């Protein structure tokens, strides 16, 4: 982009990703932050371009097209992946999706102002996106979280979520200022604000 005008996409191997290499202790300590070298490796090994669109090339298959790869995780065996991608529709619309190696494609939102992050279960059988529509946040009222899972579950949660993660057994744990949830079901009212870094909770193998 130059002077506010979109010029053309860069070939994946020439994308200037040095901006990811920030010597920022806060970002290093954040469990949700992405490793710069990991993202560079993903762009170089999995992202290809045709004309003005990009796609993921994974184990001989193409996934896409899309305008932007926002996040991608690959399992250690390099047999599974989950990615967060978006397609530019207009200045006011941007389709955001969760996709995986099995061809699943879950539309999260069409808002161009939606920003957030992706978390992936240890077995890569599920993933979740949680974020905020910036445009709606300026409209007044309580802050809300746009939430979606690879299994197709989608909802807008009020009050906004403060934390989302999967435990080692694949249980999805979320919380806000009101309650703590396990796999989407409320298990405890909190009654007070919990820090976003709070993760001292253990769940048994079958999630009961």
Low-confidence stretches: 16-32
Helix count equals 3
* Topology, number of strands: 15
- Average pLDDT for all residues: 82
Sheet/helix structural class:
mainly beta
Q: What are the secondary-structure elements, in order, as H or E?
A: HHEEEEEEEEEHEEEEEE
The side-by-side strand order for the widest beta sheet comes to: 4-5-6-7
Q: What is the radius of gyration? A: 18 Å
Characterize the overall form.
Answer: globular
What kind of sheet is the major sheet?
4 strands, antiparallel
The end-to-end distance, rounded to whole angstroms, is 50 Å
Percent helix, as a range, is under 10%
**What is the percentage of strand-forming residues?**
35-45%
Show the helix and strand layout.
Elements: H1 25-29, H2 36-46, E1 47-50, E2 53-58, E3 61-66, E4 68-74, E5 81-88, E6 93-100, E7 105-111, E8 114-120, E9 127-133, H3 134-137, E10 145-149, E11 154-157, E12 161-166, E13 172-176, E14 179-182, E15 185-189
Structure description:
The protein is mostly beta strands. It has three helices and 15 strands. It has helices spanning 25-29, 36-46, 134-137, and strands spanning 47-50, 53-58, 61-66, 68-74, 81-88, 93-100, 105-111, 114-120, 127-133, 145-149, 154-157, 161-166, 172-176, 179-182, 185-189. A four-stranded antiparallel beta sheet has the order 4-5-6-7, with no helix packed on it. Strand 2 and strand 3 (61-66) form a beta hairpin. It is globular and about 50 Å long. Residues 16-32 have low confidence and may be disordered.
